[in-house]
Amino acid sequence: MKIGFWGAGEMAEGILSAIPSKKGVIMAEKRAERAAELKRKYHVSVTSSVVEVAKKADLIFLAVRPVDVAAVAQEVKGFIKPGAVVVSIAAGKSLAFLRRSFGPKVPLIRVMPNLALKAKEGMCAIAPARGVSPDAVKEVEKILGAAGKTVVLAERFFDAVTALSGSGPAYFAYMEKMMAEGAMALGLKADVARLLAEQTMYGTAKYLRESGMDLNKFIAGVCTKGGTTAAGMEHLSKPPFGAAVAKTLAAAAKRSQELGR
Ligand SMILES: NC(=O)c1ccc[n+]([C@@H]2O[C@H](COP(=O)([O-])OP(=O)(O)OC[C@H]3O[C@@H](n4cnc5c(N)ncnc54)[C@H](OP(=O)(O)O)[C@@H]3O)[C@@H](O)[C@H]2O)c1
């Protein structure tokens, strides 16, 4: 199966870097320096023509910015290899929009990835359009699964997914910054504070994943009565924090819904 990309920016590179055999991959990229960089780094074929990719590839990642999706669709319409599957990672572009843009015959899959793809620890939600073959979905799960975790979900959940895992890296980075700044106020140097905050976040996520522990049980377990964690949680668990997180997700989901219209 020949894999293609329309757009070879940050996210495309994250996906590409996880593909074990890059032989045969073809990418279309506007920026000549970027094309040269990817050719040098991954020995893939990079063209400036989205039509060339459309004609050659069997599974194509649509990885341009959302504002450029309509222009790419316009350019490639009529040139896509029959049966080739288009996998869109463009935020907010619904399957209905993609169907109108590419036409009813093109099998479509919508994906919401996140930036952690670049560290092969991404989170990708996959929503296949009706009628897409299970084999095509499996293939996409395999490719994206090499760059992190995947989940197949109905498209109606995508605003929530966008708010949680799509936008989530910024929220966790903000939490890390706040934790590090809190520790700096207690005397730690910036680099040490960042290391301690980041490793604690990373290690806790890893432990929770590996143990599968119930979150409430875990929190109760580390909050020994009269201890330091309990003293800290006394502040964190009060309403402003939980409410702020809920409002953050709701605002992001609302924006995702607006952009999808
Ligand atoms: N970054 C994230 O955290 C994230 C998370 C979830 C989803 N996404 C989605 O992933 C997609 C890609 O994001 P990104 O951050 O990788 O964007 P990006 O780095 O800007 O990459 C897009 C690339 O496509 C090129 N391009 C645009 N139109 C083209 C055309 N007609 N032919 C060939 N190349 C073309 C752009 O060139 P020019 O710059 O010259 O236009 C740019 O190099 C977006 O739709 C975004 O919504 C991103």
Task: Describe the protein.
The protein has 2 domains: 3-161, Rossmann fold; 166-260, ProC C-terminal domain-like (ProC C-terminal domain-like fold, Orthogonal Bundle), CATH 1.10.3730. 54% of the residues lie in helices and 13% in strands. It has helices at 10-18, 32-42, 50-56, 69-76, 95-102, 134-145, 158-166, 168-184, 190-211, 215-222, 228-236, 239-260, and strands spanning 3-6, 26-28, 45-47, 59-62, 85-88, 108-112, 122-128, 148-152. The chain has an 8-stranded mixed beta sheet with strand order 3-2-1-4-5-6-7-8, sandwiched between helices. Helix 7 packs across helix 12 (239-260) and helix 8 crosses helix 9 (190-211). The longest helix has 22 residues, at 190-211. NADP nicotinamide-adenine-dinucleotide phosphate (NAP) binds next to helix 1 and helix 4.
Beta-strand percent range: 5-15%
Query: C-alpha Rg, in Å?
Result: 21 Å
What's the number of extended β-strand segments? 8
Write the CATH fold name of the largest domain: Rossmann fold
CATH homologous superfamily descriptor of the largest domain: NAD(P)-binding Rossmann-like Domain
- Following the backbone from N to C, one meets helices and strands in this order, namely EHEHEHEHEHEEHEHHHHHH
Instruction: Count helical runs.
Output: 12
Q: Briefly note the structural class of the backbone.
A: alpha/beta
Helix content: 40-55%
Please tell me what the overall shape is: elongated
Q: What would CATH call the architecture of the largest domain?
A: 3-Layer(aba) Sandwich
User: Unreliable segments (pLDDT under 50, ≥5 consecutive)?
Assistant: none
Can you list the ligands bound to this structure? Answer: NADP nicotinamide-adenine-dinucleotide phosphate
